[in-house]
TrEMBL record, chain A:
Essential cofactor(s): FAD
Protein name: Putative acyl-CoA dehydrogenase
UniProt-listed Pfam families: Acyl-CoA_dh_1, Acyl-CoA_dh_M, Acyl-CoA_dh_N
Domain spans labelled Acyl-CoA dehydrogenase/oxidase N-terminal: 6-117
UniProtKB keywords: FAD, Flavoprotein, Oxidoreductase
Transmembrane segments: none
GO MF term (any one): flavin adenine dinucleotide binding
Acyl-CoA oxidase/dehydrogenase middle domain ranges (all copies): 122-215
Domain (Acyl-CoA dehydrogenase/oxidase C-terminal) ranges: 238-359
Family: Belongs to the acyl-CoA dehydrogenase family.
InterPro entries in alphabetical order: Acyl-CoA_Oxase/DH_mid-dom, Acyl-CoA_Oxase/DH_mid-dom_sf, AcylCo_DH-like_C, AcylCo_DH/oxidase_C, AcylCoA_DH/ox_N, AcylCoA_DH/ox_N_sf, AcylCoA_DH/oxidase_NM_dom_sf
UniProtKB/TrEMBL annotation, chain B:
Record Pfam families: Acyl-CoA_dh_1, Acyl-CoA_dh_M, Acyl-CoA_dh_N
Sequence ranges assigned to domain Acyl-CoA oxidase/dehydrogenase middle in this UniProt record: 125-218
UniProt KW DNA repair keyword: no
Protein name: Putative acyl-CoA dehydrogenase
GO cellular component term of the entry, any: plasma membrane
Length: 379, 397
C-alpha cells in the first residue's frame, strides 16, 4: 500500500498550485466572470502549453503525461482550491475519458487537440425531466442514410458556450427510461440544427440549454456501441463524480482555512472569536469533514477501474460523504464569518456557492445514498 | 385549555381572508409570481392598504393606532397573510422603532412619529451593527457629541437593510465613551436626508442589493430626536431585540414554505414518479413539518403567557433559533428539489428583457434564496448569541 504521490505527481500538484496562486486570485477571477465571454481563454492556453497539464491523464503515446485518474484528482483538487472556472472536468475528465474508452479515429483526432488546448468539450447529458438518471432520455438520434439526426433538449450544460464539441447522450432505441437503446455522440458544437441559450450559473461558470433541431451528424459521431453505451456513460460519470469530489475537497480546505484566518483576526467581546470554544469545535468539525473528503476521494479514485458494481459503490460512498461535508463546511464558514460571509465582496461566499453546486453535481447525497444502499444491502 | 377557535375567531378569519383577497394589490401579486425585483412603491402599496383599514400594526396598543386584536386574532391574521403569500410588512417601523417610541418616547415624539409610521409616509431603517460591532453590539463606536441642542454624530453602520429607501433611521450611538460599554449608549432617530449621511450598497451572494453601509460624518441631530434618557439607549435596544425575536419565528411563513416545497416535489420527476414519492425526500418534509409544529406550539405558549401579562422574555431566543433553522431548511429542500435547474443564475428582468428565465418558475430563485437565507442565523443576534442568552438568562448557567 502506498498513498504517496510520486515525483511527477508532486510536480504536477506544485506547478499547478503555483500557477493558480500567481494568476488566479479572487479579483482576476471576478473580472473573468464578469467579462462577456465569462472566461479568459489565455488561462486555458497556458494550462495547455506552459504547464502541459491538459495531457495529465493521457498516455504518452497519445501525447499526454502518462497519468490517469490520480492525476485528474490532483488537478481537480487544485482547481477547487482556486474555485477555478476552467472546463477541465468537462473537457479532460469527461470528454477525454469518453474518447480514451471509446478509442477509434475520433479519439486519435481529438485527444491531441484537447492536450493542445484547442478543443473544449461540454457534456450534454441532463434533461429537464431526467434528474440524476443517466438513461432517462427524451433526446433521440435516428439513423439517416450514412449518419444520424438528433432531436431533443439538453439542460444546464456547463461550459457549452465555450465548447468546440458536445458529448451528447441520446436514445437510438427503447423507451424513455430503458437501459438499452442509449448511445453516445461527439458532435461539433457549431453544427447546423444546434440552438443554444447561454447563461451564467450561480457558481461563476457559463452554461446553456441546448436544443437539437433535426441536427445531422456523420456516422463517426457515434462513440461506443450503438444502443449499448449506458455502461460506458455510467463509468464516465463515475469518473467525473470522483473528480468533483476532489474539487470539493479543495473547496472545503479553503473554506476551512479562510474561516480559521478570519476567526483569528475578528475580535468581539475583547478577544478573537477563534477563542470561543463553540466556534473552535465547529472549526474542528470542518477540518474533519475536509480530511474525510480527501480520504473518500482517494478511495473512490483508486477504485475507478474495478468491476462496475464495486466502482459504483465506491463512488457513491464518496459522493454522499463529500456532499454532506460540503454542506456542513460551507454553511459553517458563512456562519462563523457572520454577515460578511454572505457578501459578494469576500471569496468565502463564492467558495460556499461552488460547494453548494458540487453537492448536487452528478447526484445529490440522497441519490448516492440510494445507489449505495441498493448495491450494499439490496432492494 | 382549548385548541379550537371560537365562532368569533372563525368569523374574524373569514373577514381577514376576504380583506386580503379584495385588497392585495394585483400588480404586486404579478411581480411576486414572476420573481421581479420589488421597488419601494411595491412595498408601500400593500402597507397603505392595511393602514387605511387600520390593520397595519396588529401588536400596537389601541391608543396608538393598533386594531385592538386579541392574541388569537393576531395569530389568525399572520396565518392568513402567509396563506395568501403576501409581501411581508417591513418590520423596521411597525415592529421595531414604533414599539420603542410608544414605550419610551415623550408625548411629542409619539405624536410626531407614530402616525407617519402607520401611514407608511416614513420608511425606517435600523442603524445598529458596525464593522467592528456585530455579535458584540455593545462595543459600538459611532460617537454622538453634544453641541447645544444637537448631537454631532460620526461613525459607520453596516448591514442596514433597505436603507437606500429610508427616510428615517434609528441608531445606537455612544454618548459616553468613559463608562462601561452598555451604559454609554443612546438611541437616536436620524433623518436620513441630513447632511453627512451617506448610504452605500453591499451586494450579497444572490446578487441582491438589500443591505447597505451607512456613513455618518458630522451629522447634526436635534436632541429631541433622542428616545429615552441619554446613556440609557441599551434599555431600548434590549427591549427591541426581544420584540424582534418573537416575530422572527415566522411560523406562518414557514408553513407556506413547506407547502411550496410539496408543490415543487409534486412537479419534479424522480424516475417514473414525482419527487414527492421519493421516501428520502418525503421523510425530510415530514421531519421539517414536525419541527415546525413544535415551533408553532412553543410560540403559541409564549404568546399565551404574553397575553397574561408577561412581556416577551429570553425564551424568545428559542423561537429565533428554531425559527431560523426551519427557514433555512426550507430553502435547502427547495434547492435540492429543483435539481439541475438550481444552477442557472437569474438576474431578474432587466430593461427590455422579456425572455423567460431558464427552467421552471419555482427554480429561478431557489439558489439565491438559499444563499441569502444564511443571514437568518446571523442577524438579530446570531444563533450562537441566542444560545448564550438562553444559557445565562433561562438556565442561569
Amino acid at each position: 500500500m502506498n498513498f504517496s504521490y510520486n515525483e511527477t505527481q508532486e510536480m504536477l500538484r506544485d506547478t499547478l498550485a503555483r500557477f493558480l496562486a500567481d494568476t488566479y486570485d479572487f479579483e482576476t477571477r471576478r473580472k473573468m466572470i464578469a467579462s462577456d465571454a465569462g472566461r479568459d481563454p489565455g488561462i486555458w492556453r497556458a494550462l495547455a502549453t506552459e504547464l502541459g497539464i491538459l495531457g495529465a491523464p493521457f498516455s504518452e503515446e497519445q501525447g499526454g503525461l502518462g497519468g490517469g485518474a490520480v492525476e485528474n484528482m490532483i488537478v481537480m483538487e487544485q482547481l477547487g482550491e482556486a474555485i477555478a472556472i476552467e472546463p477541465y472536468l468537462q473537457t479532460v475528465v469527461i470528454g477525454g475519458g469518453a474518447l480514451r474508452a471509446a478509442g477509434g479515429a475520433q479519439a486519435d483526432a481529438l485527444i491531441p487537440q484537447i492536450i493542445g488546448g484547442d478543443a473544449i468539450i461540454a457534456f450534454a447529458y441532463a434533461e429537464p425531466q431526467s434528474r440524476y438518471e443517466l438513461h432517462n432520455l427524451r433526446t433521440t438520434a435516428k439513423k439517416d442514410g450514412p449518419g444520424w439526426v438528433l432531436n431533443g433538449h439538453k439542460a444546464v450544460v456547463y461550459a457549452a458556450p465555450w465548447a468546440t464539441h458536445l458529448l451528447v447522450t441520446a436514445r437510438t432505441g427503447g423507451g424513455q427510461r430503458d437501459a438499452d437503446g442509449v448511445s453516445l455522440f461527439l458532435v461539433e458544437a457549431n453544427r447546423p440544427g444546434i440552438v443554444r441559450r447561454d447563461y451564467p450559473t450561480v457558481d461563476g461558470f457559463r452554461a446553456s440549454e441546448i436544443y437539437f433541431e433535426n441536427c445531422s451528424v456523420p456516422d463517426e459521431a457515434l462513440l461506443g456501441p450503438e444502443g449499448g453505451a449506458l455502461p460506458l456513460i455510467e463509468k464516465i460519470v463515475d469518473e467525473a463524480t470522483a473528480a468533483v469530489c476532489a474539487e470539493g475537497t479543495g473547496v472545503m480546505r479553503r473554506l476551512h482555512a479562510g474561516t480559521m484566518d478570519y476567526a483569528k483576526q475578528r475580535k468581539q467581546f475583547g478577544r478573537a472569536i477563534a477563542d470561543f470554544q463553540v466556534l473552535q469545535h465547529r472549526m474542528v468539525d470542518m477540518f474533519m469533514e475536509a480530511e474525510q473528503s480527501a480520504s473518500m476521494t482517494l478511495m473512490a479514485t483508486l477504485k475507478l477501474e474495478l468491476p462496475d458494481t464495486e466502482r459504483m459503490a465506491a463512488v457513491s460512498q464518496a459522493k454522499a460523504k463529500v456532499g454532506k461535508g460540503l454542506k456542513f463546511t460551507g454553511q459553517s464558514a458563512v456562519q462563523i464569518h457572520g454577515g460578511i460571509g454572505i457578501t459578494d465582496e469576500l471569496a468565502i461566499g463564492h467558495y460556499f456557492k461552488r460547494a453548494t453546486m458540487i453537492e448536487g453535481q452528478f447526484g445529490s447525497v440522497d441519490h448516492h445514498l440510494s445507489r449505495f444502499e441498493r448495491l450494499s444491502v439490496g432492494d | 385549555m382549548d385548541l379550537e377557535f371560537s365562532p368569533e375567531d372563525l368569523a374574524f378569519r373569514e373577514e381577514a381572508r376576504r380583506f386580503i383577497a379584495e385588497n392585495y394589490p394585483k400588480a404586486l401579486r404579478g411581480k411576486q409570481d414572476e420573481g421581479e425585483e420589488l421597488a419601494k412603491e411595491d412595498f408601500l402599496s400593500w402597507h397603505r392598504a392595511l393602514a387605511k383599514q387600520g390593520w397595519i400594526a396588529p401588536a400596537w396598543p389601541k391608543e396608538y393606532g393598533g386594531p385592538g386584536w386579541t392574541t388569537t386574532q393576531r395569530f389568525i391574521w399572520s396565518e392568513e397573510l402567509a396563506r395568501a403569500d403576501t409581501l411581508p410588512i417591513l418590520p423596521f417601523g411597525i415592529n421595531m422603532v414604533g414599539p420603542v417610541i410608544y414605550t419610551f418616547g415623550t408625548p411629542e415624539q409619539k405624536a410626531r412619529f407614530l402616525p407617519r409610521i402607520l401611514s407608511g409616509e416614513d420608511w425606517w431603517c435600523q442603524g445598529y451593527s458596525e464593522p467592528g460591532a456585530g455579535s458584540d453590539l455593545a462595543s459600538l463606536r459611532t460617537r454622538a457629541v453634544r453641541d447645544g441642542d444637537h448631537y454631532i454624530v460620526n461613525g459607520q453602520k453596516t448591514w442596514t437593510t433597505l436603507a437606500q429607501h429610508a427616510d428615517w433611521g434609528f441608531f445606537l450611538v455612544r454618548t459616553d465613551p468613559e463608562s462601561k460599554p452598555q451604559e454609554g449608549i443612546s438611541f437616536l432617530l436620524i433623518d436620513m436626508k441630513s447632511p453627512g449621511v451617506t448610504v452605500r450598497p453591499i451586494i450579497t451572494l444572490g446578487g441582491e442589493h438589500e443591505v447597505n453601509e451607512v456613513w455618518l460624518e458630522d451629522v447634526r441631530v436635534p436632541v429631541d430626536q433622542r428616545i429615552y434618557e441619554e446613556n440609557k439607549g441599551w434599555t431600548c435596544a434590549k427591549f427591541l431585540l426581544a420584540h424582534e425575536r418573537t416575530g422572527i419565528a415566522g411560523v406562518a411563513r414557514s408553513k407556506r414554505g413547506v407547502e411550496r416545497i410539496k408543490n415543487i416535489a409534486r412537479s419534479e420527476m424522480d424516475g417514473d414518479k414525482p419527487l414527492i414519492a421519493n421516501p428520502f425526500f418525503k421523510r425530510k418534509i415530514a421531519e421539517l413539518e414536525i419541527d415546525l409544529t413544535a415551533l408553532e406550539y412553543t410560540e403559541l405558549r409564549t404568546l399565551a403567557s404574553e397575553a397574561s401579562g408577561r412581556g416577551p422574555g429570553p425564551e424568545s431566543s428559542l423561537l429565533k433559533i428554531k425559527g431560523t433553522e426551519i427557514q433555512q431548511r426550507i430553502t435547502e429542500l427547495a434547492l435540492e428539489a429543483v435539481g439541475h435547474y438550481g444552477a442557472p443564475y437569474f438576474r431578474g428582468f432587466g430593461e427590455g428583457d422579456n425572455e423567460h428565465p431558464i427552467g421552471p418558475d419555482y427554480a429561478h430563485r431557489a439558489a439565491p434564496t438559499y444563499f441569502n437565507g444564511r443571514k437568518t442565523s446571523i442577524y438579530g443576534g446570531s444563533n450562537e448569541i441566542q444560545r448564550n442568552i438562553i444559557a445565562k438568562m433561562v438556565l442561569g448557567l
